[in-house]
Amino acid sequence: MAWYILYFTLYFGAMIGVAWYYFFKIKTYEDYMISSWSTGFWRITGTIISTNAGAAVFIGWVGLGFTVGLSGFVQFAMVAYIFSLILVIFFAKPLRRQKLFTLADLFTSRFGGKAGIIPSILSAFIYSVPTLALQLIGMSTVFTIAFDWNQATGMIVGTVLILAFSILGGLPATIITDAVQSILILLGLIVLSVTIVMHVGGFGALIENTEWEFLSPINVDGISGTLLYALSVGPFYLVWQSTWQRIFAAKDEKTALRAGITGHVIVMVISFLPFLIGVSARQFVDLSMEQDLVFSYVTNELLPAPVAGLIFVALLAALMTGATSFNLQGASNLTRDMYQVLFNPKASNKQLLRVSRITVIFITLLGLGAAFFITNINDAYRWALMVNGVMLVFPFLAIMFWPRVTKKGAITSMLGSLIVVLIYPYLGLPFDQALVGYTLSFLLVVIVSLLTKHDASEVPMAAIKYKLDDYRKGE
């Protein structure tokens, strides 16, 4: 325990120190929320790695590998980063050109008025809150293993630490610590992967002693089951605001593209390691163990305290930076897309900065409340991805490519698909929920747009080619 106390004290001390430094350096809302659109290649690359390696990677994906095997990598991790790369390769430059803060800003730039409120609510409450809760659950798991705390104590302590870091340092502190912590995360996953494979006798013994269903890239439901699972996860990453924020924060379009590709290729490769750890754990861990506990159990059992402490610090690094990214994401939605649009359109920079910090507290406390109700990290995360993806992917693509899309078409698509997704489990229909949701979203955005006219507030241009705000301002 002494090693854990030493490592955790040094780590959190350094984190709060960095945040305190940026507290005095941050002067504007732009500094706090988007790092003034000035972040360089290595910092963007590092923050992509760290933000993508949160509770889902260290805890959820190890547990998924433990329960379903390597098919989890194909249907969850690999597809997530393929869609992330599609976003970066095809949209990083045109999105960075828009010089925005949030995903909802794009809807407001295209449709005008209050069109960004629906995607803002989605991003803040349906994604940021539950995914922040997952990070708190992950932190409490580490504290339970290291200090024998109960879950509630661990989550409350985690909340205090996250609040202190994010209120003080904002996105600039998150990005700079992400860049450093990405190295720690990579080393932690590699050390644990090598250790556990050696523990079970090497790759040859692992393959020989593992049933084929846990080595196969296709899950037990066959190719169709694997593809439908992937459909519920992958498309969301086209509209994941954490990646959008990194694109917006980049100092220029070239940096957004190059850093985005580099970061996501790296995380695609390393994301195989949690599944390898989970499959290997089946050789010696009680198969009835709750899947979200496998990572912490294996780390504590296989590694000496000094090394295990470093692995846990790597996990905490991922969880802390993931949590701060998510609460800042939600806060930016509430501040930019709701407070400024609905209540104070002429808000000063000082007012926006103050409200940003207040909404960070609000989102974080909501995340703490949600954490007490989540029982499975993978299931909760997958649900959040599916709902956000179904509602936002096709309206986003229409904004980028189709000048004919109307505000009524986009809003009808978002609201209609949300209603169907929420009531679908009670309808008893034989079709996949995500497939029905995406199909309905596509049909609604196309049909309603063709049947309606553009509002006077719209800019009927394809965002892939034009900077929308320039035309709204008549520039």
From TrEMBL:
Q: How does it sit in the membrane?
A: Multi-pass membrane protein
Cellular localisation: Cell membrane
InterPro entries recorded: Na/Glc_symporter_sf, Na/solute_symporter, Sodium:Solute_Symporter
Family listed: Belongs to the sodium:solute symporter (SSF) (TC 2.A.21) family.
- What is this enzyme's catalytic activity, as reactions? L-proline(in) + Na(+)(in) = L-proline(out) + Na(+)(out)
- This one is known as SSS family solute:Na+ symporter
Q: Identify the CDD domains for this entry.
A: SLC5sbd
Q: Give the chief site where it resides.
A: membrane
Which Pfam family would be a valid example here? Answer: SSF
- TM helices/strands, residue ranges: 6-24, 44-66, 72-92, 124-146, 152-171, 183-207, 222-240, 261-285, 305-328, 355-374, 380-402, 409-427, 433-451
What phylogenetic lineage does the species belong to? Bacteria, Bacillati, Bacillota, Bacilli, Bacillales
Instruction: List the Gene3D superfamilies.
Output: Sodium/glucose cotransporter
Q: List the source organism.
A: Salinicoccus halitifaciens
UniProt keywords (A-Z) are: Cell membrane, Ion transport, Membrane, Sodium, Sodium transport, Symport, Transmembrane, Transmembrane helix, Transport
Q: Does the UniProt entry include the keyword Cell membrane?
A: yes
